[in-house]
Design brief:
mainly alpha, Arc Repressor Mutant, subunit A, three-stranded antiparallel β-sheet, rod-shaped, disordered C terminus
Length: 412
Amino acid sequence: MTGPRLSIIPARAATDRALKPRDLQVLCVLGRHTDELGWCTRSQVKMAAEMGCARSTVFEAIERLMEAGYLERHVVEQSNGRDAPHLYRVILDPVHPALSALRPEPESADSGAQDPADIPAPPAGISAPPAGISAPPAGPGPAPKNDPLRTNLREGAREERGGEPQGEQGNREDDRKVEAEGWALLKNWPQFDGMPKEPAMKIWRTLNAEERATARRRFLPWLALLKGQRKSHVPAPSTYLTEKLWQAVPDPAEAPPAPAVVAPFGKAWGARRMAVLLAGSGPLPPAKGFSAQLIAQGGEMGRREELSRQANHGFPEVNRMHALASDGKGTTLRPGAEPGEAALGAMAACRVGSDEYLAWKALHEERGWPWLPDPGRQEWVYFPAGGPAGLLAFEQAVRGKPDDGDKRQAAE
């Protein structure tokens, strides 16, 4: 048998429900290589190869383990500025609360440099860090988290702000608004229910205003892209923000205006209904049977039959509005079909059963317009103000100033 036989990790991790299976696997991989003080040097690329997953998966698991207190990381840079494999320490036991009072106070800035003899040597089997990088502490306290990725993001955000300090004299954004927008994006991240979002929030705070706005605007198109590619796994929010995955999709097209739903017998409902009636009836199906005979005979009976057929077949939109209103349902108006302010201003409430109400009913019968359905307990309905005599003013509000032909039709 080759390779390590044991993995030393804290036992509490085995039953921690906050950890994902991949988090525990990363912790076990690190625990296979630690020395007697819990330290090891591991490359995330090699760990990903060992586990058969993406490097981003390892990175996200490490972030969660650090957030949960199972791991600390010390970033190492080579003398040429390039990244080197990081130092990790598996934290076997949390710090005992009673020990916090025994820790010495940190030295002040003017106390001078620390005596090199007091700097602890690196753990056995691990080479000393490059010059300029302090060695990780051997005690239970957390190691400094000077991750170049986070540092670069912070510096980039500072440059985008022109190097101005974040204060009352700078161009600082409202911090609460930034936090609210970040949590609105991250709190319901697909497949990350119950997982810590603070690592992603730390990256979110380093983005400039334009990046944050673009990340939010393109989030849904990005999810649609993953679905179109039949991806079963949604990358972690920290990956989305760090690698700026929103750049893979263009800006969504401007959303069309949402359809409006108007309540039955209300002002907007009545205005739309009257506007459709004034536009005239559509083509009627051929008359058949007894109806055709009445129309052919002419006279008052034939005229009444023609008006009845027009009311039943010539205004399909109005009849749909009536059918929905009979069930107490409103009507959905497509964008552009909503009555304008002028048309709404020309409407007035009319009491059901009043003389004005009956006058409107008589006008509908005379013009072959479908009459209102039973309003039930509806006490008021809306018609153009002034009764049938105000129909011309309403028509002007809807269409603009009518021509002479329109005036004659309105006066008939």
